[in-house]
Amino acid sequence: MGTEKRDRQRENRAQRQAEAEMQRAAEQKAAAAKRLGYLATGALVVIAAVYFLFLRGDDENVSVGDDSGVVTDEIPADDLEELDELVEDESIDEPEDDGTLEEPDEEVAAPVDPSELFPPDGECPPADGSGERITQFDGPHPLCIDLDKTYTAEVVTNQGNFTIEFDTQRAPVTTNNFVTLARYRFYEGVNFHRVIEGFMIQGGDAVGTPAGTGGPGYQFADEPQGGEGPFYEVGSVAMANSGPNTNGSQFFVVTGASGETLPDQYTRFGTVTAGMETITAIEAAETDAGDAPVEPMTIESVTITES
Predict the structure, then answer these.
(1) pLDDT in tens, 278-306
(2) For residue 216, with 0-12 CB atoms within 10 Å meaning exposed, 13-18 middle and 19 or more buried, which class applies?
(3) Quick one: average pLDDT of 194-219?
(4) Do the beta carbons of residue 176 and residue 167 sit within 8 Å?
(5) What's the topology of domain 118-306?
(6) Domain boundaries, the chain
(7) Using an 8 Å Cβ cutoff, are 195 and 291 in contact?
(8) d(CA 114, CA 94)
């Protein structure tokens, strides 16, 4: 009897151990299933977020139907086989993170020094305009102005006066060009050779025959405004040209809506701040078939003020 009792006790212990093992296995499967449910739920949330943020578009009329992707507590049979493997090996390899983030290599462009835009050599005229009048040059002018100062031009015409305030920051090369030519007295006696009502008045050719075909003997690059238009308004002063980077001495003043709609192809370097009535008087001049005033509209002098 003692032997049978011990055999029964061993059988009972073995059965309890088997039941305990089954219970642990069931608990491990349940835990693994729960983790898989969390993962599935998280994946669906991410997919939904990506869809609504990037794929759905902006159509507010998209209807919302039955959701066939609802996460339930039921686990497919194929996933149960995966759970069995997870029970046997619960370790999951996590990516190694050393705590460092790789920063992309970015090349930061060094700011351009405006003084580098000018020829290094050359002469500048007397600042008071007392030098000899010159109308032809071998090349663009060196830096003859102080880029940290403000410049204005008092333009005297046979129809009255007007004042230009220059935008040195927007167009340093073009401002330097106009101021330097004015100090060389380049514009004295030069006519506005092209006048179109509601558009602009154009002048600045001291040598061309016919007027509008000449320049100072050199050309220089555009200084685009960039950004969104409109780029011009009534009173804007900009360079006339015959194509990209062909600036010389000719300029125009916008007088109406047609000039305000011009594209950013003409370097704007100043604004008429006083004397628009003079601009209007020149604009009203009678013109011939080539838009040239019948009676001369003449610049008598240009005086530059620095402040």
Answers:
(1) 999 999 999 999 999 999 999 999 999 99
(2) buried
(3) 95
(4) no
(5) Cyclophilin (2.40.100)
(6) 2-56+74-88, 118-306
(7) yes
(8) 54
